[in-house]
Design goal:
CATH superfamily: TonB-dependent receptor, beta-barrel domain
CATH topology: Maltoporin, Chain A
Largest sheet: 22 strands, antiparallel, barrel
Helix content: under 10%
Number of helices: 7
Number of strands: 40
CATH class: Mainly Beta
Distance between the termini: 59 Å
Radius of gyration: 25 Å
């Protein structure tokens, strides 16, 4: 039975959270608010979050620590306007303002950087699941087109940093265990001082999964280094090897989902079951890169990065067996010129980025999870490049930013089997994507507005999908986004961040699925995407005998996304809600820390019902997730620190689907998420003697 809570319950819990914060802060001292203390690098300038004239979300260690260490999904979903999904353990999707319309799995239409290095490949795909939980120290989430500085894209940008500024030399180990066979072990060594330090870490994670045929195993070995060779030069290095395997149980129909949400896709319609096909993903990723920051003159600096990466993917499905090899290389350079001209501070950024891959993809008949006869053999070479220019002028409390990038992409495709085919080329050049923003700042308030154009060519996986033939007729998305926002602080302790946006998109790329679960893509005419994203946070500090500090937060997302003009043959979907988008989501919670080392938090997440197809004839039910975490943190002497935590997720045992297959053939939409589950973690950290 699907346990549903009336929407009023959400209001009751929010009120309870707010009441708790008042009760705890009757004798509170003023604490530093996150808008004034968090420094971000969005749009090329290191500055406090409160001063950034753009819609930017931020996930830091404090946010990550509110949840278990099995994944970052719940922490990311606290950010207004963002949705991260996990269809089964290890199978991620990432959505910024609806961008998962194009993502049957993985991350598309969102540009991702890790430690200044482009992590999204030249084909437009991002294997975010190749990163482990411990490879994420913080995430900056730029909402809407970031094309003026980060190249083609309409969905947004992720800037991931693996290390944190305050990290000190230590030996660290963590072991977690939980429901559904979860085991997670991590060990790391951090050495060096503030200006020269490095960390090597290894994570081993396994899970049986909530559903049948959903086992997962992830091993990640990583090394990051930060070195300052002089006052004018700094080097950041990143090396990562990830070995990931997870089974894919497949989507269920409503009847199958209701009867047994743990089931895998059964045999039928001429296709084997997910278990018979041994449907799974085996993914190995290697990344090595470095960035160099130089102060060339008193006013001129440069940040340049270069990398090489390789991904090997094996994907048996109920329809075939795919093998891909995806080596790619790339680099990026950004010059910054800062000048004080009379009362105006001028900062000009210019540079470019270039990426090239040399992929091969072979598809075989799948016989019991093993490749059999060859069906196709392709070579795909993709190049992405862009140059950008951005100028930022500050006139006292007024700031104006203007920028643009010029984008180009080429794709060369050659099929050599089953019969040799001709070489096909696709070129998109000279796409100009400008951005203009203006901000007015006061001591505790910043108002900003921006307009930006986004351009997003179809990815190689969309041009060459698993569910249909080559589709070189697929057009690039183009859209214009308008933002109006305010962020600031009230009475020193209450911070707010409110953003309203309107995004007009043309040639929207949407996903469909055929009978065999293969995906294919079509252009969907025009869409209208409007919304309001609100974040509130209140920090409190208790001087009385027991509590040390605490906080309460509330994030709300309202999205009104509709097709404006979309016809498929004789069917007109104009005016229908975009599938896969919840009109309302709420994330809230309260956490407290005691002086004796005790800690506790209570978290709540609500999603309204979600349309599952273009016709809006099927919906996923609304759901409410309640979680709790308790722990004890102790220091033994000056060098050893212990932390023991226990937690629970989905305490209400909600029956819900996280990561629906949009427009699934025959109504195969549902990927059931875990029911009520528990976990416990022990963390030990040893600092070296001074």
């Amino acid at each position: 039975m699907n346990r549903q809570i009336r929407p009023a319950a959400a209001s009751v819990f929010i009120a309870f959270s707010c009441f708790s914060s008042v009760a705890f802060c009757q004798e509170a001292d003023t604490t530093k608010n996150p808008l004034s203390t968090v420094e971000v690098k969005a749009y090329g300038q290191a500055r406090k979050l409160k001063d950034v004239p753009a819609a930017v979300g931020f996930v830091n260690q404090q946010t990550l620590n509110r949840f278990g260490s099995a994944s970052v999904v719940q922490a990311v979903n606290t950010v207004a306007g963002v949705r991260m999904e996990e269809r089964s353990p290890g199978s991620y999707r990432f959505n910024i303002r609806g961008s998962s319309l194009r993502s049957p799995f993985g991350v598309r239409n969102v540009k991702v950087y890790v430690n200044d290095i482009p992590f999204t490949d030249p084909g437009g795909n991002t294997y975010l699941n190749g990163l482990g939980y411990y490879n994420v120290g913080s995430i900056e989430i730029l909402k809407g087109p970031g094309s003026s500085l980060y190249g083609a894209g309409t969905g947004g940008v992720l800037l991931i940093e693996s290390t944190t500024a305050g990290e000190r030399a230590n030996l660290s180990g963590e072991y977690s265990a939980g429901s559904f066979g979860l085991r997670n072990a991590y060990a790391s060594v951090t050495a060096g001082k503030t200006d020269n330090k490095s960390r090597i870490g290894f994570q081993h994670q396994v899970s049986d999964g909530y559903r049948y045929h959903s086992k997962m195993k992830r091993d990640v070995l990583s090394w990051t280094g930060n070195y300052r060779s002089s006052e004018k030069q700094a080097i950041k290095t990143t090396v990562l090897y990830s070995d990931l395997f997870y089974e894919t149980p497949g989507a269920l129909t409503k009847a199958e989902y209701t009867a047994n949400p743990k089931a895998f896709r059964p045999r039928g319609a001429g296709f084997p079951s997910a278990e018979q096909a041994k449907a799974s993903i085996s993914q190995k990723t290697f990344l090595a890169g470095a960035s160099l920051t130089q102060q060339l003159t008193s006013s001129l600096s440069n940040l340049s990065s270069a990398y090489g990466a390789f991904t090997e993917l094996r994907n048996p499905t109920i329809r075939n067996f795919g093998k891909t090899m995806e080596p790619h290389v790339g680099g990026r350079t950004v010059f910054s010129v800062k000048k004080q001209i009379a009362q105006t501070l001028l900062n000009v950024l210019f540079g470019g980025e270039l990426q090239q891959n040399f992929s091969t993809s072979a598809v075989f008949k799948n016989v019991g999870g093993e490749p059999d006869s060859l069906q196709s053999d392709d070579e795909i070479h993709t190049r992405q490049s862009f140059a950008f220019l951005q100028a930022n002028a500050s006139f006292g409390s007024l700031e104006v930013t203007a920028g643009a990038s010029l984008n180009g992409s080429t794709l060369r495709f050659r099929r050599s089997a089953p019969t040799p085919g001709r070489v096909m080329n696709r070129t998109l050049n000279n796409q100009l994507t400008p951005r203009l923003a203006i901000a007015r700042k006061w001591t505790n308030l910043t108002l900003y507005s921006s307009v930006s154009k986004g351009f997003s060519p179809p990815t190689s996986a969309e041009l060459l999908p698993s569910g249909s033939d080559i589709n070189f007729s697929l057009q690039a998305e183009e859209g214009v986004n308008y933002d109006l926002g305010a962020r600031g602080t009230i009475l020193s302790d209450l911070t707010f961040d409110i953003n309203a946006f309107y995004f007009r998109l043309q040639n929207t790329i949407v996903q469909r699925r055929d009978a065999g679960g293969g995906d294919y893509f079509v252009n969907a005419g025009k869409t209208s995407q409007k919304g309001v994203e609100t974040s509130l946070a209140y920090s409190f500090f208790q001087k009385a005998s027991f509590f040390r500090k605490g906080s309460v937060w509330l994030n709300h997302t309202y999205h009104d996304f509709h097709y404006k003009d979309f016809k498929q043959l004789a069917v007109d979907f104009s005016g229908k809600a975009l599938p896969g988008i919840a009109p309302n989501t709420v994330s809230t919670g309260v956490e407290v820390f005691a002086k004796n080392g005790l800690l506790a938090n209570l978290t709540y997440y609500y999603s309204s019902k979600i349309p599952l197809n273009d016709a809006n004839s099927d919906y996923a039910n609304a759901y409410h997730l309640l979680g709790a975490k308790f722990g004890l943190e102790k220091h033994v002497g000056n060098r050893t620190q212990f932390k023991l935590v226990v937690g629970a997720d989905n305490l209400l045992d909600q029956h819900y689907s996280l990561g629906n297959d949009i427009n699934g053939f025959g109504g195969r939409y549902y990927n059931a998420a875990a029911g009520r589950n528990f976990y416990a973690s022990l963390i030990v950290q040893l600092a070296p003697a001074e």
